[in-house]
Each structure stands twice: as C-alpha cells, then as structure tokens.
Specification:
Largest sheet: 8 strands, mixed
CATH architecture: Alpha-Beta Complex
CATH superfamily: Nucleoside Triphosphate Pyrophosphohydrolase
Structural class: alpha+beta
Distance between the termini: 20 Å
Shape: globular
Strand content: 35-45%
Length: 154
C-alpha cells in the first residue's frame, strides 16, 4: 500500500471560496480544486496542472494552510476505501485572471459538473469533502488561528 499526495487550492475572494461542483447518486458534493501529484512533479507544478484541468485557469500559489490525511479504513467509506491513504496539502491561491474568469476546465474529474463560488459562512449547508474542513475554513475567514495539521479527518 502506498500513500498518495493530493495538492489542493483554497481560492478565496472576499467571503467566497471557489469549489468544484460534483454529482453522485446522493446528489451534489463539493471539493477544493486540485488532485494527485504525479511522479517527478513538485507540489506547485501539480497544483498548477490540476487547476488548469479542473477550473481552466492558472493560479498564483501562496502559503500552505492545511495538511489533511485520509486513511480510508477509519471512515464511513471503508467498504470501498479501506486501502486508501492520502495526504492532502491545501495552499492559499489566487486566480491569475481574477474572480471574473471565464472558467473552461480542460480535464474535469469524472463527477465534476461545474464550479461554484460558495459563501464561506454558508459552507455548513453544502456537502463539502472533507466535512471537517468547513470549520477550519470558517475560522480562517474570520481571522482566527487554525492548526496546519488537521489529522486523519473526513
């Protein structure tokens, strides 16, 4: 079993965050743009590539804000994620073209149906993964201190 690195973008403009909108049998769910690091890629190279694929534009990458682990056997999707172990690295990012970008994803994920600016205060009304990320994003948006390492959360 190996550990997969995933690099994620926290694209925050004012009181909103840009998320990918996805759909499965339970309805809509939301994710931060980003994805798996490929062999030979740096975190920044992987994140820039993933943002082009999922949101269709480049980003300016800032500070590392959160590190989250996901060990599948410890969570509700253990039946099909039992062997999964992923480390996610969340970076604060800005869109290179600004908030009014005309998004044209080049290679969206299989469940992705669009993009949506979501008010951070309203995140509790959305099925965002990881679920625990909501409270940390809300603390960050309010200027409160947050831990960098979030642990094995979902």
């Amino acid at each position: 079993m190996h550990i997969r690195n995933s690099i994620k973008a926290l694209i925050i403009e004012g009181d909103k965050i840009l998320l990918t909108k996805n759909q499965d049998t339970e309805g809509y769910f939301y994710l931060c743009p980003g994805g798996g690091q490929e062999h030979g890629e740096t975190f920044h190279t992987a994140l820039k590539r993933e943002c082009i694929e999922e949101i269709g534009c480049s980003v300016e990458i800032g500070d590392l804000l959160f590190i989250r682990e996901y060990i599948g056997k410890n969570h509700e999707h253990a039946a099909f994620d039992f062997d999964a172990h992923q480390a996610e690295f969340y970076f604060v990012c800005q869109l290179s073209q600004g908030k009014d970008t005309n998004f044209q994803p080049t290679n969206p994920d299989s469940h992705q149906i669009g993009l949506e600016w979501v008010t951070i205060e309203d995140l509790s009304n959305y099925r965002l993964y990881p679920k625990e990320l909501k409270k940390y994003l809300q603390q960050y948006a309010c200027g409160q201190a947050t831990p960098i390492y979030l642990g094995d959360i979902n």
